[in-house]
Write a structure and sequence with these properties.
The protein contains 18 helices and 26 strands. The protein has 608 residues and is an alpha/beta fold. Bound molecules: fructose -6-phosphate. Fructose -6-phosphate binds next to helix 8 and helix 15.
């Protein structure tokens, strides 16, 4: 977790560092700080709390300098206090460091430094870094050499940027945590993620583990730890700065919910032709998966729900497939062979649990594919192949548009796998592609006509919110409940509709609002389950297609959230999920929750 930014070049660094930190706030928001060089040495300003609090302090006493580093924190070692906020320095304030990741051997390094007389002011693992650099500087090493020697001593995961009194330069490296370089005519940025500097440049170098970068106003050099030059190409990203801003919406989450028609058009662009029934997936032409015997998906949270939807598509077509919670898979991997395809589903491409599962699968000899939103992410680079969901940057901690884009991307990928494995070249592909071609428009209709806000108002104050569905609706109800609980802090659970009577029904009272999702398949059985909860007095909100025509559902439901009739249960699930996203959003908004930054959570979870 945590976000880092560094900037060097003409003009003053502070405002650009703050903009970068605000764009990275989704990576952590319990404390923030900057260090800039203004002649004498780094000036450090850091505060517990959100970046707005740091801004207030800086407004009173603004340091100046053209070179600087910044950090927004999500605590892993020590509580969120001013002392534990980054940047961290050595005792003499000569070296300032920001770090994302975990230094696993910090106890040992700290004990050694303490024996040699160093005093520490924070509980963090990071603070050992500036102290080690200081020792090497005292021994006569140049700042670059001191940085390299220090990095050699670290184990764990890290992206680090360092500022020293001696030079107007930034020293940076990564191992296991993301770091990208942005370039713009005489100005350089280093950051955990591209949106940090998208306001200033869209030319990007994705750095690899082990790369060491030195940037000053005259240029940049990328080498390995031993100092050998490495060649990294400059890529231009096609995200624009407004994509990373709120564009007039009260919350990123609402903006991102509303961006879904556009995001899905991008996801589908050039990939699905309903007229010919052909799927075109960049690096995955027909036959790519001919050797595959079974598929295992690994993912966390919302991405796990998308993975469940992918597994459903495959099992329906007779291809053995299973979705695993990545942290469980990393603990006890499922048996696999060289013919097992392991698909890591991860929006960020940086989720530590998913990467750990992936590495277990790679070590066991599996072929791997990443389905991710982030080009250049660790998952994309560590897998044999990557398929990008093209949803654009997602800033709200609660994943919304990336879920829809994941489900759609996976539906195409899984059809391709099924065609290759079963040899059945068409199957029901045309029906899927027809429904997908209508999906952006159908989704716009849901956004325009949704009564989710009224539903949220009507059922506010329930003791609990249950979400039930079967088949393709099952991942949707799990996702609906996750979204509801994470941003409203209300008790919400998703259940396979048929499972309710095996235990959870005991919890159902007239104060339990039940959302029942109907996707056009197995609807009658789900309706029986609705009747069971209604018999216990629970209000029921149905999410269903064309509810007016579906008299029985309308008759039993207390309220209906309507979706266009897609004639495809998987695609109907995407639309139903958008209704549930809106319900969660409005319920949380009514309760005054900090929707984009739910308590205890962060967007990119880079610890196991
Ligand atoms: C919930 C949410 C999380 C993520 C999970 C995995 O709204 O966003 O559950 O889905 O942390 O993240 P990625 O997809 O980046 O691997």
């Amino acid at each position: 977790m945590c976000g880092i930014i560094a900037r060097v070049g003409s003009g003053d660094a502070v405002q650009e560092l703050l903009t970068g930190l605000e764009n990275l706030e989704y990576r952590g928001y319990d404390s923030a700080g900057i260090a800039v060089k203004n002649g004498d040495g780094p000036t450090v300003v850091k505060r517990q709390g959100q970046i707005s609090q740091l801004r207030d302090v800086l407004d009173e006493d603004l340091p100046a300098g053209a070179v600087g580093i910044g950090h927004t924190r999500w605590s892993t070692h020590g509580p969120p206090t001013d002392e534990n906020a980054h940047p961290h320095t050595d005792e003499h304030g000569r070296v300032a460091v920001v770090h994302n990741g975990i230094i696993e051997n910090y106890n040992e390094l700290r004990a050694g430094l303490q024996e040699r007389g160093h005093e520490f002011t924070s509980d963090t693992d990071t603070e050992v870094i500036p102290h080690l650099v200081e020792e090497y500087l005292d021994e006569g090493h140049s700042p670059e050499s001191a940085f390299r020697e220090t990095v050699r001593k670290l184990s764990g995961s890290y992206a680090i940027a360092m500022l020293v009194a001696e030079e107007d330069a930034i020293y940076a490296t990564r191992r296991g945590s993301p770091l990208v370089l942005g370039l713009k005519e005489g100005k350089y940025f280093l950051a955990s993620d591209v949106p940090a500097f998208l306001d200033f440049t869209d030319d990007v170098v994705y750095l690899d583990d082990g790369d060491v970068v030195v940037v000053d106003a005259d240029g940049h050099a990328i080498t390995d730890l031993a100092g050998n030059p490495v060649d990294r190409s400059v890529q231009t990203v096609d995200w624009n700065p407004e994509d990373a801003g709120k564009s007039g919406y009260e919350h990123y989450m609402l903006k991102e919910i509303n961006e879904q028609p556009t995001a899905l058009r991008q996801t589908l662009r050039g990939r699905a032709d309903p007229l010919t029934g052909e799927i075109t997936l960049e690096d995955f032409p027909p036959g790519t998966f001919a050797d595959v015997e079974s598929v295992q998906f690994v993912a966390c949270g919302t991405s796990y729900h998308a993975a469940l939807a992918g597994a459903n598509v495959l099992t329906e077509r007779g291809v053995p497939a299973q979705a695993f919670i990545a942290s469980e898979y990393a603990t006890a991997p499922a048996p696999l062979t060289g013919e097992t395809l392991v698909v890591a589903v991860t929006q960020s491409g940086e989720t530590a649990d998913t990467l750990a599962a992936l590495r277990r699968a790679t070590a066991a000899g599996a072929r791997t594919v990443a389905v991710t939103n982030v080009v250049g992410s660790t998952a994309a680079r560590e897998c044999d192949d990557a398929l990008f969901i093209r949803a654009g940057p997602e800033i709200g901690v609660a994943a919304t548009k990336t879920f829809s884009s994941q489900v759609v991307t996976l539906s195409l990928l899984c059809k391709r796998i099924a065609q290759d494995v079963t040899g059945d070249s068409n199957g029901d592909v045309r029906q899927l592609l027809e429904a997908l071609s209508e999906l952006p428009g159908d989704l716009q209709q849901v956004l325009d006509e949704s009564t989710a806000r009224e539903v949220a108002e009507e059922y506010a104050g329930s003791d609990a919110y249950f979400f039930i569905g079967r088949g393709s609706a099952y991942p949707v109800v799990l996702e609906g409940a996750l979204k509801f609980k994470e941003i409203s802090y209300e008790h919400a659970e998703g259940f396979a509709a048929g499972e309710l009577k095996h235990g959870p029904l005991a919890l159902v009272t007239p104060e339990t609002t039940v959302f029942a999702v109907f996707t056009g398949r197995n609807d009658e059985k789900t309706l029986s389950n609705v009747k069971e909860v209604q018999a216990r007095g629970a209000p029921v909100v149905a999410v269903a297609a064309d509810a007016d025509a579906n008299d029985e559902i309308a008759e039993f439901a207390d309220a209906v959230l309507s979706i266009p009739d897609t004639h495809h249960p998987g695609v109907a699930g995407v639309l139903a999920n958008v209704q549930l996203q809106l319900v969660a959003y409005h319920a949380a908004n009514l309760l005054g929750r900090p929707i984009d930054k739910p308590r205890n959570l962060a967007k990119s979870v880079t610890v196991e």
